[in-house]
Amino acid sequence: MTHSTERVALTTTTTAAEADAIADALVDRQLAACVQIVGPITSVYRWGGAVERSEERLLLIKTTAAAYPKVEAAIRELHSYDCPEIVALPIDAGSADYLAWLREQVRGA
Hints:
Oligomer: single chain
CATH topology: Alpha-Beta Plaits
Order of helices and strands: EHEEHEH
CATH architecture: 2-Layer Sandwich
Shape: elongated
CATH class: Alpha Beta
Structural class: alpha+beta
Radius of gyration: 14 Å
Number of helices: 3
């Protein structure tokens, strides 16, 4: 079964405390059904003309397409980075029960 309304949004943070604050806010505001915090991870990227390596936390944010603009706005509001990673990927398929639960939890759209 194909679903096009659910999304997994991704962002990274430097600290566990910032990851916790963003996750708590997204779930509390009912913009996300669940946020998983993975890490620490190592990110390698080019910034300011140099290759950088940072320890970060990865947030996997379960949301909907309708709520995504508010998810992005909340991340920008709460994030310490000048240019935070904020991307969303469609969920093409998944457990019908889980996806129904996800949609029921996200009411902040």
